[in-house]
Amino acid sequence: MPELPEVETIARNLREGNGSPPIPGQRIVSFSTDWPRHVAHPSLHTFNRRIQNREIVDVKRRGKYLVFPLDHETLLIHLRMSGDLRLAPSQDPKDRFDHTIFSLDNGWDLRFSDARKFGRVSLYEDPEVVLGRLGPEPLAPDFTHDRLANMLHARKRNLKPLLLDQSFLAGLGNIYTDEALHQAGLHPLRRSDSLTKVEVKRLWRSIRESLNMGIRHNGASIDWVFRGGDFQRHFRVYKREGEPCFKCGTQIQRTVVGGRGTHFCPRCQSEDQL
DNA sequence: TAAAATGTTGGGTA
DNA sequence: ATACCCAACATTTT
To answer: Residue A42: pLDDT band by 50, 70, 90 thresholds?
Structure first.
């Protein structure tokens, strides 16, 4: 479920509280998991020992990571493909996907639900060890189109796989990449070093507008309807194979690029530009 | 029933 | 070093 807008939505809800108490200020009184591989670092034993009695000071996001600065060390959670984080009263029954649970001192649980079990939690004294490998934040003020131009021109890669590379740019996933490329009118296989200044600026604006639109709609993910996220009703190409492009009416095509399903309009994002 | 799925990583190849 | 491709991870949904 999670790309940047979904992770941002989760972080905001946890931080502000949304039908549940805000997380900052709460203390973790116990930790349990029925899927030990959720714990990526340090060892399960060490993680369990060090997480006890830590106060959660804040909830932030970096790329697709949820970042919880604690009174000592920092907890990182990555939702991968199917993860979700939500607060529930401790006495509420767990559902079958609630694999990892942080019990808080206010009677609530922070529950990591994860059907496919790809998600990871970790604890670092210096989270930059992990977060420092990420590319820039696409919504940060210092992410200018000039900077994007320099980044693109320094590489010779197809646009779609490059935009999905988290060490290039942090936060885009398969949905928002397809959406941004369509809005920019760029073919997914276009080489990064061939973009003109005008095209870079269009891509830059499209990336930011797609992500902001996702955040405005509280995320896109299909399974998120119950949480109010409804961006999936606004997809321009993703999951719309065979349906008409809203801009020109041509049928949206689906191909595979870099092993990922890729949706685009063969007219608005013509192969002629390759 | 087979195929695809919002992500990442590691291995092999060129 | 750069770039590409595929398998793996584990399970649900279409």
So the answer is: very high
